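Possible regression after last week's pipeline update?

I re-ran a chain I had predicted before the update to compare outputs. Posting the input and the new output here so someone can diff against the archived version. Not blocking, just want to make sure nothing changed silently.
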Amino acid sequence: MTENFPGAAGPTPERPEQPAEQATQHDSAAHHQATPPAAAPPAAGHPGAPEWNPWAPPQGHERPAQEQGLPGQEPSAGPPWQQGAAQQPVGGPQHPTAAFAQPGYAQMPPGANPLNLTAEQPHGVYTTPRKPTRTRLVVGVAVLALLVGGGAGALGGYLAAANGAGAYNSVFANTPAQAASNAAPGSVTDVANKVLPTVVEIKTQQGEGSGFIVSSDGQIITNNHVIADAVGGGAIEVDFQNGKTAQAKIIGRDPTTDVAVIKAQSVSGLPTATLGTSSSLQIGQQVVAIGSPFDLAGTVTSGIVSSLHRPVNVGDELTPQSPQGQSPFGQQQQQPSTATQQTVLDAIQTDAAINPGNSGGPLVNMQGQVIGMNSAISSPSSSAQSQGGSVGIGFSIPVDQAKRTAQQIIQTGKATQAQLGVSVTDTQNGSGGATIKDVTAGGAAEKAGIKAGDVVTKLNDRVITSADSLVAAVHAQASGDNVTLTLSSGKTVQATLTGNTIDVQN
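New output (post-update):
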């Protein structure tokens, strides 16, 4: 296929007509004058009349011999002006001579009237002198260079437009080369790329949840409530991100902190999650939650830390769940609590979407470090018959607490929970704090001088607003830690927390 780009040589038409681009660039005077009817050719046989040729210039304006053809071409036979017309490319020679004001056309004789065409002055042969259209040639060169630089795809689109498509079509262009990874450091994509290979889906006969790998030979941290129905030898299946699966066994679990450790069987060389710290978290910092909500493995959501030290009571299998207990995906009730050994989370609150199936999955910072384990949500639409979805209120166990419990389970098979040695309830007058209901003989509280009826309003620098708040604050500590308790009377006491081994069936 031959393309005639502006200003480029091309085949010469049999009857050259005035190009459209030349017609639009005539002097303004020619545009405002009406074109009179062309003069008829002289009658044949008229005495002295030359033989009329509409394509031949009059005598005296023949084209010079050196311009009768393109360089390297032999001139055709015939009159000189016909030779020039036959071989001159559209657009004419690059260097007009005095005999041709516009390349490819003869110059009008001096004194001739362009509106009064005669046999010596036929229509379509002469053009009025005008400025050379150098801009068009430059544009033509620029377009040609663009096409060459654009490659075959862009050239194909240009040719399609030239053939009547009317526009460049990117459907036929070459696909741009893609970088190996365009994830900016610290972006959600970057975090997902780092953490996803370490997250697993955990399936039991009753449901599914999530977990994250902490050892290359298959140790996995998850929630107790994810694997609780497999206690006593029930089947546990672990699905990895690479599509492989393995059976798993329970190493140990702690219902009071909702932490469990399982081990996938017959695996090695697994990627492991990087555990960060929850002690330096700030409200408003960005986080990413990863898990398997509604059996959709490898789901990534993002949000912020909405609040810290949020007490969340998710019940306890060791004692009947209190009326105010909040199941992992249930709605909190408003009756008073009698928190003793219930699972009370000292939780991180986040608005990253957490749904049923996210339990046990990691909450990570923007460096890809695990800072929490997703455990519960507040969902107004949930009930005993149905599970609600995310409304932007999710809760995660701080990784410092989960890590401490997991270490104990891996080392001994059991968790040790910090104890104050009291049972507590909410205050009745709505003034805040936790009312001491009973004091355990020989416990940390009795040794510190705390009595039944005292109201604890602060543990260290943490304000205590309810019974659950005090239980969560104690669970966040380690056995043997010294704490300062502030009572509603203004009195402060020092207590050394004791340890209670959580002895449950695995």
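Follow-up from reviewer: compared with the archived run. The first helix runs from residue 20 to 23. Marking as no regression found.
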